Amino acid sequence: MAQVTVQPPSLRVQKSQEIVEKQSQIIPLVQKNGKVSLTDKNGHSRRHTAQVTYSVVHQIRGRIRLRVPRLRYDADYAQRLLAIVEADPLFTNVRIKTAAAALVVNYKSSSVADAKVRSRLIYLIGAANDMGIVVPKANNSLATQPTEDVENSWPGIQLSAMATSLAVLGGPLGLPIPPLIVAGTIALATLPVFQRAVEGIVKERKLNIDFLDFLAIAITTVQGQFLTPSLMLSLIEIGENIRDRTARSSKLQTLDLLSSLGQFVWVERNGVKEQIPIQDVQRGDTVIVYPGEQVPVDGTILRGKALLDEQKLTGESMPVLKRKGQPVFASTLMREGRIYILAEWVGNDTRAGQSIKLMQEAPVHDTRMENYAIKIAEKAVVPTLLLGAGVFAATRNPARVASVLTLDLCTGIRVSIPTTVLAALTYAAKHGILIRSGRALEQLAAVDTVVFDKTGTLTKGEVSVVRVESLNPATSDLRVLELAAAAEQRLTHPVAEAVIRYAEAQQVAIPNRSKWDYQLGLGVQAEIDGETVYVGSERFLRQQGVDMEPLNGHQPGDSLIYVASNNQLQGRIVYSDILRPESQEVITQLLTVDGVEVHMLTGDNKRTANAVAAQLGIAPKHTHAEAFPEQKATVVRQLHEQGKTVAFVGDGINDSPALAYADVSVSFANGSEIARETADVVLMQNDLHGLLEAIAIARKAKQIIHQNTSIVALPNIAAMFVAVFFGLNPLAATVVNNGSTVVAGVNGLRPILKPSPKKALPSAR
């Protein structure tokens, strides 16, 4: 992330400051009438010369978050910044989190421009460096301020471990531990269970497994059987902790387009070129884009021409030549040329920004694993309660009731299943597959439809030479390649780079090039071995007077460049975005698994899409061409509405909406930042074989979960039969219940103990 140094005295910031001062008449520095003011003793406004480094993490309408590294180590500076930002009338809410060096502010977007807010913040970040700022007493402690992402870290595991230790010391070991202390510790450790039980009754209007656990813990504690509830609590807390660890480890960021582009943009205003922060670009500005830069806005070319790589936005694998009057789009990469653009849409109003907005509107799921076993356990709650009530009515023995309640399926399932999930996620990570959550693992195991984006996913996403053809009997294919490589060397055009790579792979001796002239969008003229060589489009060669008669009878192709020397056509080079070497194998294996459908989405035309699909064995009815981001998301939604569990595999900004709407989304480590952040599964080795392995790991984990359910259920049901008809000590019931839990938990560790699964998928059934 680019770092920016704030220099408040700069002309731009001072102007922004003066605008805000005229509106608010409040410049924070010293306390006055309950406010903070930035005026000195004479009432004059101060100018600050301090430099403070900051970076913008993200911004949406009404909210902006910045990272200011100084907040982490300078508490006094943090106090001053909090005070002066809170006092500024532009902001409705301010939060500082020193551990993350984060400053988060909210403002009324309807009454103030985003650019003005950002300019004001930049000024205040520098102004807070003034040591003369007096912080109001009410703000003397940042500890009292609300911070973002604060979690209530109740020490459940520690308390349950302490309760177990005290119960062992005061029970089997016979140490004089006051029962009140042990019971009190158990009561504190039970609070999270009690809260979840109450939430189930109040919010979900049902008796959940936590209610059952709470009753068992309460009855055994009242009876003085401290070891039973403390062991039960320990296992519950271990299971909940592991379950939370299988939730998505990094929250989906509030991504916006500006965070993925450069920090500064060149614009031309009143005939003067200046570089400004990207967030300050406005509609109507003339934006200048140079080679190697990303286009920052949607607009129309005013002058110049450029070769633009639109792959991440549109999925088009080949660079596109754009001239005056043609539209260009934000996030596309300038390969060659220089253009002046009339900015028509900026920021999140651009096409790329709308793709991100569509992604953010996708439904958000609980990322913890919600599996069939938990649902089975919850269905057993009411019958277990009724059975316990029946035993009590028949025997009037609370101990037997406690045994019945202890012998539920809940504890074992709540420990063994998260353990299996965590082991599977760990195993996958060690094999180059990042599965972000337990829910993603669960969905992977159930996938019956896989939808692939074409460009960059099934294909390499880069130009590659397919073949070289001589069109002159006196010239060999090798000579055609030599001339083309010599003329194209050191050019940055993707086709030129592909020709050089192909020549090097064929170990061709590339001749020297003397004079040369490259014409953007047409081709190159060069002097090679005393010959005048032309390499480029058919149009370019005809313009140079080359005899194109040898083309008669040759079927033209979509992706060709021609090679001529001394005004004679020598040959042509066919290139395309070729398939990944593993694509066909992966598609074949997916198609051979009963019930799995494979679809392909692409922005290419139907003819190109069908040709690629036929090569891969994908049915025409499952091939979706000319698909923009919104249409890709629609296809995924429609498949989901048909009852299918959909995995979508893609890597570009244009794929992010479809990734967000899929049941499980897959991307590559080298995909766009937005695609990686959206994806539930990231293939770190950028190889589609990882998808097969991920599905195999998920299905194996599901099989182990089935086994664990049996391991937990059978002994507990048998022991419950004994408890109901013959009676069973609560401690013995705990041993059976906890013992089966431990065995199932150890079984759940099998994913990390097994060798790597084969590429072929196990049956889904």
TrEMBL record:
<keyword id="KW-0812">Transmembrane</keyword>
<keyword id="KW-1133">Transmembrane helix</keyword>
<dbReference type="InterPro" id="IPR023299">
    <property type="entry name" value="ATPase_P-typ_cyto_dom_N"/>
</dbReference>
<dbReference type="InterPro" id="IPR059000">
    <property type="entry name" value="ATPase_P-type_domA"/>
</dbReference>
<dbReference type="InterPro" id="IPR001757">
    <property type="entry name" value="P_typ_ATPase"/>
</dbReference>
<feature type="domain" description="P-type ATPase A">
    <location>
        <begin position="265"/>
        <end position="360"/>
    </location>
</feature>
<keyword id="KW-0472">Membrane</keyword>
<dbReference type="InterPro" id="IPR018303">
    <property type="entry name" value="ATPase_P-typ_P_site"/>
</dbReference>
<keyword id="KW-0547">Nucleotide-binding</keyword>
<dbReference type="InterPro" id="IPR027256">
    <property type="entry name" value="P-typ_ATPase_IB"/>
</dbReference>
<protein>
    <submittedName>
        <fullName>Heavy metal translocating P-type ATPase</fullName>
    </submittedName>
</protein>
<dbReference type="Pfam" id="PF00122">
    <property type="entry name" value="E1-E2_ATPase"/>
</dbReference>
<keyword id="KW-0479">Metal-binding</keyword>
<keyword id="KW-1003">Cell membrane</keyword>
<dbReference type="Pfam" id="PF00702">
    <property type="entry name" value="Hydrolase"/>
</dbReference>
<dbReference type="InterPro" id="IPR051014">
    <property type="entry name" value="Cation_Transport_ATPase_IB"/>
</dbReference>
<dbReference type="InterPro" id="IPR008250">
    <property type="entry name" value="ATPase_P-typ_transduc_dom_A_sf"/>
</dbReference>
<keyword id="KW-0067">ATP-binding</keyword>
<comment type="similarity">
    <text>Belongs to the cation transport ATPase (P-type) (TC 3.A.3) family. Type IB subfamily.</text>
</comment>
<keyword id="KW-1278">Translocase</keyword>
<dbReference type="InterPro" id="IPR044492">
    <property type="entry name" value="P_typ_ATPase_HD_dom"/>
</dbReference>
<dbReference type="InterPro" id="IPR023214">
    <property type="entry name" value="HAD_sf"/>
</dbReference>
<dbReference type="InterPro" id="IPR036412">
    <property type="entry name" value="HAD-like_sf"/>
</dbReference>
